[in-house]
Amino acid sequence: MTITFERVIQGFHFTGLAEVEPAESATDISPGWPTIVTVFALHLDGSHKDCIDIIDPSIVQRIEQMLAETV
Question: Is the pLDDT of residue 71 over 80?
Fold first, then answer.
């Protein structure tokens, strides 16, 4: 499922879109896995330009982790 998000990190306001794959429990034939979040559009401080390619990947990973914890 695709979600929109808004997060403030160190005074910067990030908005964007992310794809969320919910966690699944293990079954007899497959292992379980945690919630997986992939940010695919990222805007900084209200800009209209997608900045996912120029933002430090650790910030993107932090946003993904924050989203995974709240979904």
Answer: no
